[in-house]
Amino acid sequence: MTTVGMLGLGIMGSAMSGHLLARGFDVVGYDPLPERAAALSAAGGHAEQSVEVLSRRCDFAITSLPSASAALDVCARVATSGPAGLTVVETSTLPMDVKQQCRRLLADARMTLLDCPLSGTGAQALERDLVVLGSGDEDAFEAVRPVLEAFARSVRYLGEFGRGSTMKFVANLLVAIHNVATAEAFALGERAGLDPAQILDVIQDGAGSSVIFEKRGLLMARRQYQPPSAKLSMFLKDVDVITAYAEELDLPTPMLSATRDLYRRAIDHGLADDDAAALLTVMGSDRIGSHHTPAQEDKA
Questions:
Q1: Domain 3-162 - what CATH class?
Q2: pTM exceeds 0.85, yes or no
């Protein structure tokens, strides 16, 4: 039985772990939050007490981490404790220079880091509706492909290390803008007196729809911002990462720049841990922090 180490058991890491367990993999996991580790144990996995112990127990490791500092810390600890030849699959959305630093840390310890960010929301992760945007050593990637296919509907190999992150920046630029466009569309319709459930039903049947409109629009229609499928704070982090990368390429991104203020405003209103659907609350159609009652949710 292949043992997969999951470093980070948040929204994405826990969903990936569940699919791996369901498909017969042994999963060992680590997360600094005890409740996440307990959830993995309850699902049939094995929670480890440290990154170091996990690194010695797995055939492959997957990282799903919230920040650059967390990624650098985890990769440094894996490099000092894991066996030579270990392949680590890095799935987080991080600045390119951070990915390269992590790669060098592991290479110095004769380990391989693959750059494999994921396209899809937390809700899609639960449905095994993710796309792996893989890059790095091709032989290592093909060796770990069966693991990736266990939690993703599509696994793409894009070439040399870093191509995965570049493609993820392209994808998340679109998602960040689509989130805002969806909120603005609902705000317009509701301000004009349309029912949010009707907006969702009619627009998703026409040319104006998108995956984000369907997924996030449903949450907007219900005012259902918890639990989040992707937090507002995560999107602001991603917008900043993509903007900085575009600046390195000397490429203006006016539409992405226009969204940044709206994400910041939502976070300033205390919505950082809400789903990105809560952008609707800063569009003028909704009272800040309001949520529908269960009866209203059923109606939506």
A1: alpha beta
A2: yes
